[in-house]
Amino acid sequence: MKLRTTISFLALSALAGIANAGEIKPFSQVEFDRLTHAGQPVVVDVSATWCPTCKAQRPILEKLMKQPTYKDVTLLTVDFDSEKNTVRAFKVSMQSTLVGFKGTKEVARSVGDTTESGIDGLIQKTVR
């Protein structure tokens, strides 16, 4: 019985952690429009699977998005190679670009930043 209680506690703890984390999901124009028009903070992550800078950014983004501070932030991922219309719409010229929005307004942009403090600063601008 004690083992079952421990497992239940761990499962509930994990679910509570998920509820306090920002979402990471693939970009869709419908979702982007819905979130930004509702005034929600959004970060658009334009990356490529072959890009070493993007690979360095990924664990930092995942770590930061788990922070309760960013529970209302949505990270929308865009594939630089296969989603060219979206890349052009955001006026992105290279992979490893992060674009932050507070509602419908762009509030931050960075290219190639692999520092936790720099990426954290960009995300912070979407929630202030």
Mean pLDDT: 89
Class computed from helices, strands and strand pairing: alpha/beta
Low-confidence stretches: 1-18
Largest sheet: 5 strands, mixed
Taken from the alpha-carbon principal axes, the silhouette is: globular
The total beta strand count reads 5
**Total number of helical segments?**
5
Tell me the series of helices and strands, N- to C-terminal.
HEHEHEHEEH
Strand residue content: 15-25%
Give the helix level as a range of percent.
40-55%
| Beginning-to-end CA distance, first to last residue | 46 Å
Radius of gyration: 16 Å
Sheet with the most strands: spatial strand order = 1-3-2-4-5
Q: What's a concise summary of this model?
A:
This protein has 128 residues and is α/β, with parallel strands linked by helices. It has helices at 2-19, 29-37, 52-65, 84-89, 116-127; strands at 23-26, 41-47, 74-79, 97-102, 105-111.
Please outline the helices and strands:
Blueprint: H1 2-19, E1 23-26, H2 29-37, E2 41-47, H3 52-65, E3 74-79, H4 84-89, E4 97-102, E5 105-111, H5 116-127
Parallel strand pairs: 1-3, 2-3
Antiparallel strand pairs: 2-4, 4-5
Write structural notes for this entry.
- This protein has helices at residues 2-19, 29-37, 52-65, 84-89, 116-127; strands at 23-26, 41-47, 74-79, 97-102, 105-111.
- It has 128 residues and is of the alpha/beta class.
- The longest helix is centred in the N-terminal third of the chain and has 18 residues, at 2-19.
